[in-house]
Amino acid sequence: MAVTPDIAGISAPEDLRRALTDAQYLADDALATAAYLGLALGKPLLLEGAPGVGKTEAAKALGGVLGRNVIRLQCFEGIDAAAALYEWNYPAQMLAIRQANADHVNLYAEDYLLERPLLQALRDPTGSLLLIDEIDRSDHEFEAFLLEFLSDFTISIPETGTVRAARPPVVVLTSNRTRDLHEALRRRCVYHWIDYPDATLEADIVMARASSVARATAEAVVGSVGLLRAEPLAKPPGVAETVEWAEAATLLNAQGARWPEAFKRSIGVALKDHDDMTYMAERLSAILPGEAA
Fold first, then answer.
1. Which site in 48, 53, 80, 86 is 20 to 30 Å from 254, CA atoms measured?
2. Please, what is the end-to-end C-alpha distance for the chain in angstroms?
3. Are residues 177 and 207 in the same domain?
4. Of the candidates 77, 60, 78, which has an alpha carbon nearest to the alpha carbon of residue 69?
5. Model pLDDT for residues 96-137, shown as the tens digit of each residue
């Protein structure tokens, strides 16, 4: 199959992986392959995994690699078409009616249309990357609506007509798997599960994101974070917290705090839940890094 123009210059998963690395997102072979296939086949990419493994960051990095504007639709419980597509600016319409003869006011002019992410993605003339974040937080009705949208990338606005994508967006969906998604939506996508990175890759991520951190410090923090994730925590630290903890501990050490005291004092950037902090209070010494360069 010929590679689409949207990924010109990226002719294989290895090319995409290198491009993502240049964008400071360190993807493994499996993720790079799934993303490449989604692009080459013109299918949405569905990324599932625990919170904090880098699903949203992967979509943003992919948008950067493709040179596309990232438009994000953050899903939530009760989200409906109005929040995802468009709304009419009713206060502005009412004001226009009061200020002019109602017979001469076009209440459905462009000035009164409030674009939401799905409509923004369709009307972007240069093409965009549409990030549908945490689709599992929406309900089944919205999921069915979204499936229809993804099938033809059109929106019908009763008052003005049908809007078709000038350039179909690249679509990435993320899910924390708080509920099962409909099988029809899964079949529509290229699927990939993102797990926490292995220790070597996570240390590489810390070094790429935090230039002031020594390699020994990065490895020590990654080891401790791995132990924290094995505990029954409400909010286990994600990759971003690993990077932040390494940076925070390095900062405190530079200001005079000794190891492992620097790690202990900065634990609040790794654990961000009161119950988790309480649970780990007496266990923290056993998992804190020791002397780190």
1. 53
2. 50
3. no
4. 60
5. 888 876 667 888 888 899 999 999 999 999 899 999 999 999
